[in-house]
Amino acid sequence: MKSLNSMRISGFDVLPLFEGGKGISISNGESSGAWAAAGAVGTFSGVNADSYDSDGQPIPQQYFGRTRVERHEELIRYAIDGGVTQAKIAHEIAGGRGPIHINVLWEMAAAERVLVGILERAGKLVHGVTCGAGMPYKVAEIAAHFGVHYYPIVSSGRAFRALWKRAYHKFSELLGGVVYEDPWRAGGHNGLSNSEDPAHPEDPYPRVLELRERLREFGLDETPIIMAGGVWYLREWENWIDNPELGPIAFQFGTRPLLTEESPISDAWKQRLLTLNEGDVYLNNFSPTGMWSSAVENAFLRELKERHDHQIAFTREPIGDHDTAFLTGPRKQPLFVTAHDKSRAEQWIAAGHTEAMKTPDSTLIFVKHEIMRDIRTDQTECMGCLSTCNFSNWSQLEGHTTGKKTDPRSFCIQKTLQVIGHSDEVENQLMFAGHAAFRFKDDPFYSNGFVPTVHQLVDRLVTGD
Question: CA 20 to 30 Å from 255, out of 170, 211, 237, 417?
């Protein structure tokens, strides 16, 4: 295994190893401070981070506003307060030994307001901003205003070219690096384009090489590229290290830091990671963001699959094969389906999936009564956690609606991520992870259920394992 040379990151000479930012509250001040203290790069999540009461307990993010707009403003206040809290914790733990970065998602609610609000109050404690999940044109301007470096997250050279041409060329001196997040291997939301097949992963090397070529086109030969998604043993990436064709390369770890002592996730989640098999993490398109995402197979995802599978198309008037009346709702409104689909629907109803819910695509899904109740409650209690939401039709733009019907095939992402981040409940909640998570099971480092400290993990990574 080649030796890892230090790299200049956000004003520090550190190992070229990054902690991947994971919201909500999954990478926090404690974990990121520990990464920086170990001579690497720590990253806490600025996505609805936790604040604490006088006893050190997380303050529940409860909403009392009567309207979605009022709840949206409450959410922004929680996000800013939490981000400032985590920045202070990270700064204290790091002790000046490495950089602290904040990770924000451009598609999260009021991303600009939240980032600015945190940096106004804690900017001197933060050295870099990573940002993805969308096209974050404004992040360079915001980072430059506060004198911190910025690290856009992209999944192609084409995406970076668009960002550079539109905005980043004005703030080139603070571009600290570019994160290439592999859209087939990374955990959480993934940047798959419409032209890319989710079932056929592409080799990351030519994609990163193409990104480097774009960087060289703009005179950014020495700007680091941070490889994220699917990285486990660095010895498997040895040909990337000190490779003149690729230029400076660092590596980001999102999944392995979950299983450390400083990781704030529950013991139940940590133990679940040790049992995963290959294929237990896969891409799905249920997210209310409209983006693909990678998560662990569990009852939560199986129920969403069931909604999709228990689905039939309808028309409001008899058209073609859709000539069979099907009565729905308390008023028994007639809709028209095929005879075959009516038979399928009757079987689902007999099995307990008694409630038919309309989707924006002129289909009906069939769910149990308690599922329908939860869907409607979650849609009613929406607090606008995304810039736009397919599930609740929220939009932070004027009018605060996408103008589209709500989609019951999705879910309230804020609710499930808050629950899994603050409880032992993992089977019935969304559990993000990268596709290499199955390697916990066979990696001898974790034998007998061993959970390392962050420092122990960083020391292990340097060896190639």
Answer: 211
